[in-house]
Amino acid sequence: MYLVTGNGVVMFDTPWDTTQFQPLLDSIKVRHDKNVILAFATHFHEDRTGGLEYYKRQGIKTYTTKRTDELSKERDKKRAEFLMDKDTAFTVGQYSFQTYFPSQGHAPDNIIIWFEKEKILYGGCLVKSVDDTDLGNLSDANVKDYATTIKNVQGKCKKPKYIIPGHGSWISTGSLEHTLKMAEQLKQ
Question: What is the pTM for the complete model shown?
């Protein structure tokens, strides 16, 4: 996902396919006549952090949490230039958003991005599309706490107008409830 602001473009999660790093920047520039100025990764998996070092070399400010950085370092994944040690609010151009760590779920470090004013939730891989039949990659998941983590997101992000999962369709606002239902089945 990316956000077009008056000051430039903010990217949330990066491609993992190295052949897509520059084409994505190029297509954003052509489509919006703006450069990407910030990039955030919502957890340490390659499909979120893969382009961080490339984008950093392009002069884009890259961000992850300190926990994501620790896991990236341990597992030899790409790392960001700037680290957040707590939930952090950002204002870029005319938009404001907040990073939020609701607790462990898909990964021990998964954060979401919440646009309070617009009521838009970017859930990353923590939130699944209503089309998904399972929670996907659970290799680093906390299956015991996943449902509680989704409830924490619901408590933070009241009445979202849009819920954008890390993969799949974002047409439905039922993604949180759908993810919660699947997460509760994990405990059974």
Answer: 0.95
CATH code of residue 59: 3.60.15.10
Q: What pLDDT is attached to residue 168?
A: 86
The verdict on whether 167 is a catalytic residue reads: no
How far the first Cα of the chain sits from its last, in Å, is 33
- Please identify which of the residues 13, 43, 145, 178 carries the catalytic annotation: 43
Structural domain span for residue 12: 2-186
Number of domains in the chain: 1
Is residue 45 annotated as a catalytic residue, yes or no?
Answer: yes
- Rounded CA-CA distance 107/150 in Å is 13
Tell me: pLDDT of 102 over 80. Answer: yes
Q: What are the strands of the beta sheet with 112-115, ordered from one edge?
A: 89-92, 95-100, 112-115, 120-124, 162-165
Q: Which of 13, 47, 69, 145 is catalytic?
A: 47
Q: Which of 106, 110, 145, 178 is catalytic?
A: 106
H helices, E strands: number in the chain:
6, 10
Question: 157-183: per-residue pLDDT in tens?
Answer: 999 999 999 888 888 899 999 999 999
